[in-house]
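Task: sequence design from structure.
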């Protein structure tokens, strides 16, 4: 066994492409090796902007042997009466690739047949990989691909070298106009040229000696160490930014950080704008003092060590100065107008071609915000409603500001900054920034109640608007992120424990777009079904069982926090040893009622009882019903289910002793009524037919 090394050398690959590409390449290569029966050990991926590499330990030199039994003609056809092989047997042996003497007779269900054990040839791993690697390399997925020269192939960036070694043996293949070898490039500036790799085990150290840290985690740790050292040397603190660390790690082959400076006058611009300018445009790390205030300096990470790093630092300062000058100019221009002035300009900004302008969306948010406040606080909260409505009026205003037009990622942030400067209270200004949350899975949720209500209003409006014009997500197409918006609604309602009716909110949202009553109801149902689906998937991903989720949501999900309580109770109850027979008993009750078309509780006449089991079940139902009602009111569904579970022996005895579908219609209906009393106990908790 030998280690396998594959390196794809290329021109500068975008930082965001590297890790996904390595992950995909690793999986596709391992899958190909398993399919080809090449045993192997653990894989390790390495990458820099100029190379994607994969090392797999302990790769077998050849395929593992594979034998298979080949079935031939019946024995009576393969041998004559004298027991001599016929032409049919000879042809079968020839086709199976074995000697005639190796053909045997095997007894099968259909009788005696000729069989042969066929051994497939074991090819060398080098030959198999040489054939597979060109397709695997060109099949690596990238967000965007490019072609170069007159070649017909495409890749993230032009391929300039291919290194492929199994042990010390070169795996020969060609991609485009590049043929594989045992050579790699060193650091483009510090150690240009090619260098021979003796074996995969020497790969990392050879690159290290040539100015390249190819291990991503090692390079990241070194980057963090070096920028921290520079910051401490200048009595600064690095503004924490894990995402930027990951980006910069894959922008360099070896990190050489340097401290740059800009004029202190730029600090009058909001910190968020300065940080964004440094981060987004130049990938610089912002620095603060001990109190957390932004300083007029930054750390830039270079890919090479210059003779005079002061000159490099000055160059970075000149580059960022132009960016900051733009930000300062835009900020001054913006401050000449108020957020209300900006809000008026939203009349010329399209929300969606068929759904009107952002100004119209702003008006809907005011209406929905007020409605949500009334739903969440039915006893009234005028201060909160005033804040929510005011935040709705100006939450989209910064979209037409010069700062957001230049720095699009600052939408909401700049609105919050400008609102603070105009004297808006913290509830309003905070809601302007936070109403976009969560911006992705696992992201922060809105913090204040005002922000939560405004976020719900914004998301409901977008979903209802899109569904009203049949702009529904299909497959991978979801241009308005309606799936994320739906999950955000559920997350916010769960976190805030908003127990108001989701249907009421959706119907209000739809009514702002649709006037026809029939269509209004249809769109509302469609929206609710969509949100329900997203909620179900989200909870399953969080670890709740699919059956419990489906069972609880099938009953109702109008009260979102209550739905989660019922799901938790079901999951807990399902761990009980006698849950399965309990579930079977309740399923039987529900199925009988469904077949009879009974969907609500029916009266029970005790005078019509003919068997003691009927009376016992009826008495138990009444007793259990009182406890279940008190537990469900307080959301103690696990206790409620345990109470309901005590009915099982009474239900079993009832089914054993009496027949429900008797000829006497009066008795049959009375027994149906008794079963409906049982079903009524759990019909608002779960649909047991789905478990």
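Answer:
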């Amino acid at each position: 066994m030998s280690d396998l090394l594959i390196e794809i050398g290329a021109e500068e690959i975008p930082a965001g492409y590297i890790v996904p590409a390595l992950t995909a390449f690793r999986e596709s290569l391992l899958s190909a090796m398993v399919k080809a029966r090449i045993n192997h050990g653990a894989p390790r991926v390495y990458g820099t902007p100029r190379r994607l590499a994969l090392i797999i330990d302990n790769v077998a030199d050849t395929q593992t042997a594979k034998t298979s039994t080949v079935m031939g003609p019946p024995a009576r056809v393969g041998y004559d009466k004298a027991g001599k092989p016929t032409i049919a047997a000879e042809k079968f042996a020839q086709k199976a690739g074995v000697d005639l003497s190796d053909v045997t007779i095997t007894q099968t269900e259909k009788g005696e047949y000729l069989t042969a054990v066929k051994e497939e040839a074991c090819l060398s791993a080098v030959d198999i990989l040489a054939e597979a690697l060109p397709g695997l390399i060109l099949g690596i997925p990238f967000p965007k691909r490019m072609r170069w020269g007159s070649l017909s192939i495409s890749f993230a960036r032009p391929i300039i070298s291919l290194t492929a070694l199994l042990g010390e043996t070169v795996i020969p293949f060609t991609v485009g106009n590049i043929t594989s070898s045992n050579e790699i490039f060193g650091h483009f500036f510090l150690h240009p040229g090619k260098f021979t790799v003796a074996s995969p085990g020497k790969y990392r150290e050879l690159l290290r000696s040539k100015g390249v840290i190819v291990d991503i985690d090692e390079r990241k740790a070194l980057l963090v160490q070096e920028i921290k050292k520079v910051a401490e040397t200048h009595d600064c603190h690095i503004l924490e930014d894990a995402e930027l660390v990951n980006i910069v790690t894959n922008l360099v082959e070896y990190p050489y950080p340097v401290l740059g400076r800009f004029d202190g006058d730029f600090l009058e611009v909001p910190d968020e704008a300065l940080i964004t300018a440094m981060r987004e445009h130049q990938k610089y790390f912002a620095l603060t003092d001990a109190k957390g205030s932004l300083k007029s300096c930054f750390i830039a990470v270079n890919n090479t060590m210059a003779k005079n790093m002061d000159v490099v630092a000055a160059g970075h300062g000149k580059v960022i100065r132009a960016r900051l000058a733009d930000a300062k100019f835009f900020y001054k221009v913006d401050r000449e107008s108020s957020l209300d002035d900006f809000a008026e300009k939203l009349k010329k900004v399209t929300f969606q071609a068929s759904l009107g302008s952002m100004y119209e969306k702003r008006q809907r948010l005011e209406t929905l915000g007020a409605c949500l406040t009334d739903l969440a606080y039915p006893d009234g909260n005028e201060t909160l409603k005033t804040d929510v409505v005011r935040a709705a009026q100006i939450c989209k205003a910064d979209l037409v500001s010069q700062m957001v037009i230049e720095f699009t990622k600052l939408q909401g942030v700049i609105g919050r900054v400008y609102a603070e400067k105009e004297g808006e209270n913290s509830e309003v200004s905070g809601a302007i920034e936070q109403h976009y949350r969560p911006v992705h899975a696992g992201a922060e949720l809105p913090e204040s109640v005002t922000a939560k209500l405004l976020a719900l209003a914004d998301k409901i409006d977008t979903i209802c608007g899109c569904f009203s014009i049949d702009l529904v997500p299909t497959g991978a197409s979801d241009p308005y992120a309606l799936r994320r918006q739906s999950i955000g609604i559920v997350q916010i309602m769960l976190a805030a424990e908003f127990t108001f009716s989701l249907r009421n909110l959706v119907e209000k949202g739809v009514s702002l777009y649709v006037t026809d009553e029939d269509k209004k109801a249809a769109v509302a149902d469609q929206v609710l079904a969509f949100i329900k689906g997203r909620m179900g998937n989200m909870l399953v991903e969080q670890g709740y069982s699919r059956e419990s989720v489906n069972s609880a949501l099938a009953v109702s999900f109008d009260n979102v926090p209550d739905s989660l309580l019922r799901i938790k109770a079901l999951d807990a109850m399902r761990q009980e040893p006698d849950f399965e027979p309990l579930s079977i008993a309740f399923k039987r009750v529900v199925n009988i009622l469904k077949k009879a078309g009974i969907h609500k509780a029916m009266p029970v006449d005790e005078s019509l009882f003919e068997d003691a089991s009927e009376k016992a079940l009826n008495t138990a139902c009444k007793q259990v019903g009182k406890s279940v009602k008190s537990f469900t009111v307080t959301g103690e569904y696990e206790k409620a289910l345990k109470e309901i579970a005590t009915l099982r022996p009474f239900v079993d005895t009832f089914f054993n002793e009496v027949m429900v579908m008797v000829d006497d219609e009066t008795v049959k209906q009375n027994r149906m009524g008794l079963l409906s009393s049982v079903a009524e106990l759990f019909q608002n908790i779960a649909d047991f037919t789905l478990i």
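The two ends are 50 Å apart (CA to CA).
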